[in-house]
Specification:
122 residues, mainly alpha
Length: 122
């Protein structure tokens, strides 16, 4: 059950490989729920935040899957929320890494651009 995932995530604090499996499960849930995936945001967004925060030690294990989950979450969002914007604070440090994850980072930035409401200058 998806309701068991938050408890499993909390209990797997020292087991990053299990957390990678949880990220993959969340990825499939988001894809399956499409725009209804916003119901997962209270758990999903903090998971993405932690997985993509290069100042947190688990990012070494979780970053790649976390970026994919972040992108799929944006692709299945109907609008940009303050919570989704908050996660974007991780992006500058990710870009500074200059790693093989740059492609995913640019895809995430592009998804934010498409979700952003149009600028309504008169």
């Amino acid at each position: 059950r998806s309701s068991d995932l938050p408890l499993l995530w909390k209990q797997s604090d020292e087991h990053n490989m299990l957390r990678c499996a949880i990220l993959t499960t969340l990825l499939h849930l988001v894809k399956g729920l499409v725009e209804d995936s916003h119901s997962l945001y209270p758990f999903l967004l903090p998971v993405i935040q932690l997985s993509t925060d290069v100042s947190q030690p688990p990012h070494v294990y979780l970053l790649e899957d976390g970026l994919v989950l972040w992108l799929v979450t944006l692709e299945n969002s109907q609008c940009l929320t303050p919570e989704l914007l908050r996660i974007f604070q991780n992006m500058s440090a990710l870009l500074e890494l200059g790693s093989e994850n740059l492609k995913n980072c640019f895809q995430i930035i592009n998804a934010y651009i498409f979700l952003a409401p149009p600028d309504r200058k008169s």
